[in-house]
Specification:
Blueprint: H1 2-24, E1 97-102, E2 105-110, H2 114-127, E3 132-136, E4 141-144, E5 155-165, E6 172-182, H3 200-220, E7 239-244, E8 247-252, H4 256-269, E9 273-278, E10 283-288, H5 298-303, E11 313-322, E12 325-332, H6 333-337, H7 346-370
Antiparallel strand pairs: 1-2, 2-6, 3-4, 4-5, 5-6, 7-8, 8-12, 9-10, 10-11, 11-12
Helix pairs in contact: 2-3, 4-7
Amino acid sequence: MQAMKVIKTSWVLTMLISLSACSMLGLDLFGEEGFFRDRQGDYLEAESIPRINVPADKDSYIIDDLLIIPDLISADGDAFLQVPRPRPLQGNPDQSVVIQRMNESSWAVIDSAVSQVWPRIRQYWLEQDIDLSLENAGEGSLDTNWFIQDGNVDTQEKFRVLVEPGFQNESAEVSLIHISVPQDQEVFEQVTWPETSINPEYSDEILNEISIYLANELRNYQASTVSFLAGNVSSEGKAKMLTEDGINMLHLTAGYERSWAAVGRALERAEIEIIEEDVDAGSFSVIFGEESENDDAGIFGRLLSIGSVEETTPFDVFLEESANGIDVLALRVVDINNSYSDDLSEAELDIQEQQDIELINDLIQAIRDFI
């Protein structure tokens, strides 16, 4: 123990002598010119360098313009001394891509943030030798140049790809708009885009190809870069839980078709039995709150059930249009029919109503978790 103290003392003395020697030799350790100076403002003097030229036979996938540095505009002229840190790679490690269709609309739902999906969408078109005429990462849209499909001697094609946040946080949705003109017709890069594709079948075919490509790429490049341009797009999902008088309601910032498809998918993923659905009325009739006495109901049956409930409970889930989206509400069928037993006392009725509210809240939360 005494020997250890001697060693520590000798080491401290050696360091002090070294520092003194540096000072005697005129070597500054601290300060603006010192070795241990503050470097947090060095980035302000950074200069651009030429892009890396990748040989044609090499993979240039992860070479991308990640962060465009804007001109510094500040009222007081001060620089940002705290450099913003890059956003980490987000998303479910078990990536999944699902195509949803309703009427003539179709879109792909990806369990990954827009900032991850965007560069893969760009790469898909480049690998098809199709250049892009317009890219607006802030709005999540890109347009292809006009191109001729292999084997097509009649028309030339152009696509607009829309990438926007999904219902869940850190998720994305991809949809396409396709237009086509005769090959002998003069074309312009700026066009007026219709609301739906001219050829829905061809658009669905390309969307399916993109979905397969994304599923493979997101699996292979989980550790690669993300797009900082697309990172400006909000990663917050389009599903928001609201509560009024203690009762949950789900607000979806989307159109009716996408909301209907998303709620139906959420009910299926949560293993909630759908008895009947009416897309025109905007309602799902479901069974919720079942508890199996032999405990064989499965993990979702146990997680989504309430201990005091011993019988299946019929619910109606409604989709109602609101000012800026769709509201999803749930009511027990017994509440709709106002058919509570007349034999219930006021105290028993209060308990029953509270149980109803708990069931409604659990059902809406289940939809929120799986949407």
